[in-house]
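We emphasize that the prediction below concerns an isolated chain of 525 residues; any contacts that depend on oligomerization or on bound cofactors are therefore not represented. The input was used exactly as deposited, without trimming of termini.
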Amino acid sequence: MIMSRLWDCLLQAYRTQTNGIPLGALLVIPSSENTFLRMVGEAEGFDAMPSPVALLLLLLLAAPSPSADAFLFSGDVHDNLNATVAHVFRVVRRCIGAFGPDDHLHPGHGPGHAEPPATPLNPPYREPPPSSVELCASRGFQCERHEVRTADGYTLALVHVLGRAGAARVAGQTPVLVQHGMLMSSDAYLLRKDDDNLPLILSGAGFDVWVGNYRGNAVSPHEHVTLSPDSYQFWNFSWHEMGLHDLPALVDYVLERSGQDDLHYIGHSMGSTGMMVLLSSRPEYNRKIRLATFLAPVAYVSRLRSRLFTQLASVAGRIKDFLVSHRIWNVLPRSAAIHRLADTLCLFPGADKLVCNPLLFEIAGHSPEHVLPNYASLIGAYLPAGTTIRIMEHYYEVARTGKFRPLGYGMGDPNPGAEYNIAAITAPVALYYSANDYFVYPPDVEQLANDLPNVFHKYLVPDSTFNHFDFILGVDARQLLFKEVLGVMLQREAALNSLHSQTHSFNPNDLLVHYLLSQKKSLYF
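Result of the prediction step, given as a token string:
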């Protein structure tokens, strides 16, 4: 009921802004105006969708365009988006102001007339938001930034967690490389304001932690030995190149600096995809991985459960053509305007539950029980962190064909190359997945587990509402996931160091306590 009322309010604002042009007119506008929005309107199932996705679209339509074209992808994207924020804020204030704190209309008010009963909350991060190193310091840890050159000429950022501020460094610690997913960066692992950031938990447990960044994201410098970041050639990469070039550069750098022969690897989403590309394509790297921990692993995509991605997939080819024709190579980069928009909308009492959180749930899975305070505003400060056309179309091709293989020349290439040889991944692998992940369908993880030759551990998060973002940002990720991840890593350490026999009855909690006590470390859980 509330969603329908909010939809009606925003629809009224849209009609006022467009002089009553029906929403369906998006389908027949012949000019270049609203081209991108028209494509979204043509996506399957849009007409029957009073959902957060459609609400966001209406917000965009209700805002005046500062240029002749649709504001979202015309002229300077950031300037245009920034120019609409004030108007969007006024529209949302009017619409949300009609609802009380208990999601009921205020007596005597209709949609669009009442003012909100409260003022917005303070944003969790100011613009620009703190860097990964600054986020570490705010949690009482010391970090430093490194830069790594790949074999094909890109520069990557790498964050080294040195340990708690003021604590003595311990030599010989086992290194861990932690890698982010699509549209993320190292910041995503460190932005939580509580004590549950995974790299810091690992550091507190005695590991030598490094947090990597893929090429082209908001943290890695947009630098290449020969290519300009303004050129298409600079952005002509997918997670195939990330696996073949970025990850070996990061792994080798960490091993060289730590003086170790192998390391633990933790990859979330695209972080797991890239490592599977590396280990299947360059098998010599298997011996450098003590344990590959894959959180929400993406290899097989037999089903898309997000309505947003299902709808956009139906017009994927046209979206690609539009981006190429407008020379938009860095897709969805980090933006001060998006940060401001998230703070403007999502910190207003009631707006988080009515619009912002449901929009994120539409993407990752409905998960209201696991959201952090100021969830959407936290995410808006750091996400999206940039992607490329080829990354998106590579995942689209995996979903369309059902085959985990290189992209080749692009969508529809009849000879993209053989499938990645999953059987060549001989390093031990731990798989973590959830039933409510809109990106990762549990049967696909089961198939991956069947195809991998050395599955060390497999874990279904014991909560039916845990979603794709919750693997990093879930309010109870420490108890539901991180505790298991650390316990299994310590089991692997115990096996390698002969602390326990291979036949030892496995209890992650017992091993965790035993190991930390033996190392004279404080219990972090």
